[in-house]
Amino acid sequence: MAIAVLLLFYLLSISLSFHGDAYIGVNIGTDVTNMPSPTETVALLKAQNIQHVRLFDADKSMLLALAKTGIQVIVSVPNDELLGIGQSNATAANWVARNVIAHVPSTNITAIAVGSEVLTSLPNAAPVLVSALQFIQSALVAANLDDQIKVSTPLSTSIILDSFPPSQAFFNRTWDPVMSPLLKFLQSTGSYLMLNVYPYYDYMQSNDVIPLDYALFRPLPPNKEAVDSNTLLHYTNVFDAVIDAAYFAMSYLKFTNIPILVTESGWPSKGGSSEPDATPDNANTYNSNLIRHVLNNTGTPKQPKVTVSTYIYELYNEDLRSGPASESNWGLFYANGAPVYTLHLTGAGTVFANDTTNQTFCVAKSNADSKMIQAALDWACGPGKVDCSPLLHGQPCSEPDNVVAHATYAFNAYYQKMDKSPGSCDFKGVASVTTTNPSHGSCRFAGSGGKNGTNINGTALAPAINSTNSGSFSQYYNGGFFTSYMILALLLSALVVL
Description:
The chain is α/β, with parallel strands linked by helices and 498 residues long. It has 15 helices and 15 strands.
């Protein structure tokens, strides 16, 4: 499988403008075993030149890691905090002070998502939803941040009834007491309707009425395109039809100038026996075509001049999520930074996890236990047969002189020597794959070319780290094989000087 490296994603990053160029962003969920640290996650974002992210909370360490990167961030009020905020202006003001004001302008927060699919997932909070938005907005106005930061709430498309033909769509009237004031709030604040659009579920629930190609943006012959008999608008994909259904549903309530921001869309790469179309190929096809479709800036058949920026769900596979097998397989990347699949995009301007040079590196996790990292370093420089001489005092990679930096060099040397084979960048869970070249100064890492980075010498390949032959790291940690190696080398150099 091809591995992700530096992309031209900056071409997609633009300011939030629905009448200008659209952009693609990503959601970052955290229900992940061995979740990468915020620093590692930001390193992946930067390596991919991803300029727009949505968080499902307002995690302080993540916001600090995003500081001074320029990445535009949507922070979220989790559903379990919504009731308190919706019932108290002071609680909302405290939330904004702690999670927004404390971080701007260093962290480029551009929107606040208040709750997530509240009407369908937390209906008991629906009566205070608009109050929560208003209280959050008041706090932003008081801080003079209301022009910079928009406030909205992501809705599920399941609240739209009779969605095809789009011209007949309307919001579930059960929610009229909420939707009318919500749309009035969005209109008065110049915000947008946040919508989670999942053609995968529309397709799965259609009982074969919706063709797979129609859900995946695959080209359809004109006679197979869906036509709205009331407007004679032609629809070549589910995505556009659902968004236009939302536009028509808003117009039914007399709101015609509120743009839509798609806060979630994607396709799972793996599913259970009842989910045969959750495959890597379909996920690849959908997301590749979605990116291409959004970036062509043509809007939808109803609103061709209004672009629809979209956040892909999601950055990582969240393997800890419960439910059907597909729930844990929406990610573009595994937790170790390797892509789940390589997106198929035309031409040399590639996006997300697609590269011909296959440059990836193995690095030590900065938040891992230092003793485990040291043990793995001792193993790599001993039984792993990595040439660690560049780490000796006075050599190109001796600085920074700490276990994480030295282990990163050794881990990557082993990983490259093993031809990046599966399991060769694990080291008992203290290492991960990255697309960011860790070379610095005159220290060139294996895999990046140049001095001490072209090939790793060694006549025999070391055993895979996860194999039973690799033994326990502790046998190399006690007494510190690498530490002893360094001391011996220094003593020998001192004898030469004498």
